[in-house]
From TrEMBL, chains A, B:
Name of protein: MarR family transcriptional regulator
Organism field: Cohnella luojiensis
Primary location group: cytoplasm
InterPro entries from the UniProt entry: HTH_MarR-typ, MarR/SlyA-like, Transc_reg_Sar_Rot_HTH, WH-like_DNA-bd_sf, WH_DNA-bd_sf
HTH marR-type domain segment(s): 10-140
GO cellular component terms attached to this protein's record: cytoplasm
Places the protein is found: Cytoplasm
GO molecular function, one term: DNA binding
GO biological process, alphabetically ordered: response to stress
Keyword terms of this UniProt record: Cytoplasm, DNA-binding, Transcription, Transcription regulation
Amino acid sequence: MDTDSVLKLDNQLCFAVYACSREFTKLYHPLLKELGLTYTQYITLLVLWEEDRMSVKKLGERLYLDSGTLTPLLKKLENMGLLTRVRDKQDERSVIIALTEQGARLKERAIEIPEKLFCQAGISPKEAEALRAQITDMLKKVQKLPL
Amino acid sequence: MDTDSVLKLDNQLCFAVYACSREFTKLYHPLLKELGLTYTQYITLLVLWEEDRMSVKKLGERLYLDSGTLTPLLKKLENMGLLTRVRDKQDERSVIIALTEQGARLKERAIEIPEKLFCQAGISPKEAEALRAQITDMLKKVQKLPL
DNA sequence: GGCTATTAAATTGTATACAATCTATTTGCT
DNA sequence: AGCAAATAGATTGTATACAATTTAATAGCC
């Protein structure tokens, strides 16, 4: 590719990923609205539905988000009555996030979302999985870089 | 995939794309900082370097961004002296964005960025292009959906 | 021509993201 | 024990994103 082509927006992998991410989020929006959640709040709960009781630090590692994003987000979910934030007695530096009854129950209603989305988007589960694996590979590659 | 697996974060295509997008942007950050640009400002200029003089509307279609995001961003780039915002005489509803001398010149320095990135990330141009094509396909699919 | 619908930007309000910094706690070392 | 370095969250400041609404201008229709 010549020097001019590499600067073309349509040739840039990063832009494709960036635009795709935002369009995907828009697709989630109406479905999540029914649950009263934003996308970031939703993926935070996904992690907790898999494994309840987790430090902010570990949550951040799973979501690739730092405390600057998570702290206000978790405070909001706490105010909504979906989780609790409690200092770890063993290590007072950490804060343990745990689902409330209500937060745990919300999982039932969230189950339908992934399927609805695939149907809407017309993406087959097989090709979705193939693409997800490739993107995850790249994510690991990009994330591991020494800054 | 069973009902529980679809809710697992690591199985979700959307999350992979979302996390990858943010990690990619972080990779750009130090390189763009040298030019005094953010990622969104950079891709806006990419479009204008390809085709100068364009309405906010058209710019938004290329970038998948709306006026709510673009208006403040373009005002900032205007203040930085990189572009001008002028009402279209033919259609006073539109605003035409045009590069200044300085904005056009910045392209020279931006040329190096894509190559530096690929080297850093250890992604071969060939696999990047293959992945970009797949993601763009999905983007089109997701974006065309009737809301 | 005159009125309604549509369109393009701008504005408003809410929710992220993240770099950089700060605070409190704990670890590791002597 | 005592202290420097490291760690986990919280805070601050800046820059997006985007839904929803508003404003101004144009297009379409009678």
